[in-house]
Amino acid sequence: MPAGTLYRGREGMWSWVAHRVTGVLIFFFLFAHVLDTALVRVSPEAYDNVIATYKVWFVNLMEYGLVAAILFHALNGLRVIAVDFWSKGTRYQRQMLWSVVGLWVLLMAGAFYPVLKHTLTTWFGK
Fold first, then answer.
1. Closest alpha carbon to 84 in 19, 2, 10
2. 115: number of Cβ within 10 Å
3. Does domain 11-124 have CATH number 3.30.420?
4. Which residue, of 12, 31, 37, 38, has the greatest Cβ tally within 10 A?
5. Distance separating the N- and C-terminal Cα atoms of the chain
6. Is the pLDDT of residue 8 over 70?
7. Rounded to an integer, what distance in angstroms lies between the CA atom of residue 62 and that of residue 72?
C-alpha cells in the first residue's frame, strides 16, 4: 500500500471524520451552554424562559444525540491514544474501532430510557 493511504475510504477514515464531527458538535453545545448559563447573571427571568424551552421533546432527542456524540468522541479518543502510543496500535486499529462501536452501541442502548424518559412518558404515558 502506498504511503499515506492507510485509511483511504476504510473504517479508520470514517472514524477520523466522526471524531472531528462529534468534536465540533460538542464544541457548539458547550458554547450554547456557556451562553445560556451566563444569561442567569443578566436576567434570571430570561434564563428561566430559555430553560423552559429546553423541556420539549425535540430538545430531549438532541440531548440523546449529545450523549451519543460525547460517548463516541470519548471512546474513539481512547482508541486514538492506543493507536498512537501502543507499538501494535496501528496493526489492531480496525479491531479496536469495531470494539469501540460495539461498546458505544451497548452504552447508547443503556442510555436510551434514562435520557429519553421525559419524552417517552409524554408521548406514551406511564
1. 19
2. 19
3. no
4. 12
5. 57
6. no
7. 15
